Amino acid sequence: MSSPALFDFFLPCPRGLEAALAAELAEIAARHAGAAQFEAGAQVPGGVHFRGGWKAGMAANLHSRIASRVLLKIAHRPYRNEQDIYALAAEQRWEQWFSANETLRVDITAIKSPLRSLEFATLRVKDAVCDRLREVSGARPSIDTAQPDVRIFAFLTATDCTLYLDTSGEPLFKRGWRLDKGAAPLRENLAAGILRLTGWSAGTPLYDPMCGSGTFLAEAAQVALNIAPGVERRFGFEKLKQYDVTAWQALKVEALDAKRAARASRADLGIFGSDISGDMLEKARANFERAGLPSIVLKQVDARGMTPPVAAPGILVANPPYGERIEVRGRGPRREVRETRRGDDNEGFRRVHTDAPDSEFFQSLGDALKQRFSGWRAFILTSDRKLPGQLRLRESAKTPLFNGALECRLFRFDLVTGSVKQRPASDTPD
Ligand SMILES: C[S@@+](CC[C@H](N)C(=O)[O-])C[C@H]1O[C@@H](n2cnc3c(N)ncnc32)[C@H](O)[C@@H]1O
C-alpha cells in the first residue's frame, strides 16, 4: 500500500503564541491526525511550520484554537524581481487544486523585500495564476476580494518567495458564532492562546471581571466541553479539488457528536464573568447562546468591588479598558481634551480623550486583588507597561504578545496569602 502524500503547512498566529501553537498542534496530531502523519516543524516569529497528510491539515483547521490560518505550501524559490515571482507562480499546477470557475484572491506579505511595489507583485502573481489556468483550460478565473473561493498567499523575504494556498478561507479566529461584538473584543485565537499561557485547565475556576463580549469565557468553555472551535464553520479546503473527503467527514462527525454531547451536558464549568456594563453582558449572553454555552455564570459588577465567585482559588484573566478606544467606567467625570493632529494622509483629524489617569481605578483593582483573591493567579493583558505599578503589585512574569499590531504584555500576579509583593507606583517599567 502506498503511503499517503505529505504536505508542508504553515500556520500563522498572533506573535508571542508560537510555542503555545506548537504545543497545541502536537496534541491535535496525537488525538485527531495520527502521529505518523505529522512532523513538527520550525517555530518562526508569527507562526509554526509542520509537515503532514491532508488529515493533519484538516484537523488543524477544525481544532486549532490558536492558529489564524492553515496555509499549504505550494512553491518556494529565491527571487530578485517581479518577473521571477511571475515565473514561479506560472509554473505551478494550480489546475490540480481549483478550476477557472472558482473566484480568486491573492495577498502578499513581505519582510525586507527589495521590491518597490507589493501591489504590483500581487498583480503579477494573480496574472500568472490566471494565465496558467487559461492556458490549460481556456478560461480565466474571476477575482473576488470580498468572498473568494480560493485564496493564494505569497510571502516575500529579502531573497525568497513562498507561495501558499490557503486551506482555511475566513481566518480561523472567526468561529462562526459571534454576532455581538463589544467595543474592543479580543480575537478568539489570542484569547485561546492566553488561556493556554495561564496554564488553566478545565475544572479550575476561571473568572474574567471585565469580560465584555465574553471571549475568554467562551474559549474556555469550549475547551472544557471539548467543542472544536471550527465545528460551526466552513473551510477553504472544501472548495478545493483534492482533499480527503472521507477523512474530513469522519473528523466533522466526531466534532458534531462532541458538540451535541456538550449541549446536553449540565456540567458546572466553574467559568465566571462580570462587567460593569449590562449591555456588554447582554452581548456576551447572546454569543454564548449561539455558541451552545449557556452555563457560563455572568454578573453585573464594578471590578473594583469584585469578589471571588467561588471559595476555591482559581485563575483570573482580563484585558482591562485602555486609552481612547475603551474607557474605564464607574468613576467620577473626567475633563475631555480635544486636540487636532495631522494624519498620514495630511487630513487633520480630531481626537478626544480624557486627561485624568486611570490610576485611581487600577489602584482599587489592585486592592481588590490583594485583599480578596489570595491564592488566585491573575493574568492581565495590557499595552500599558506601567500596569503593575498602577496596581501596586509586583508581577511574577510578563510575556510579550501582539494584539494585532499593538504590542502588549501579559502580566502574571501570584496572589499568595500574606506574601503579595507590593511595588511602589514609581517603579520603572521595562
Ligand atoms: C477591553 S474590554 C474587554 C473585552 C473583552 N475581553 C471581550 O472580549 O469582549 C474592557 C471591558 O471592561 C469593562 N469595564 C470598564 N470599566 C469597568 C469597571 N469599572 N468594572 C468592570 N468592568 C469594566 C468594559 O465594559 C469592557 O467590556
TrEMBL record:
SUPFAM superfamilies per UniProt: S-adenosyl-L-methionine-dependent methyltransferases
Keywords: Methyltransferase, RNA-binding, Transferase
Pfam family name, one: RlmL_1st
SMART domains named among the record's database cross-references: THUMP
Keyword presence, Plastid: no
One Gene Ontology MF term: rRNA (guanine-N2-)-methyltransferase activity
THUMP domain segment(s): 56-167
InterPro entries linked: RlmKL-like_Mtase, RlmL_1st, SAM-dependent_MTases_sf, THUMP_dom
Record bears the keyword Methyltransferase: yes
Protein name in UniProt: Class I SAM-dependent RNA methyltransferase
Organism: Trinickia violacea
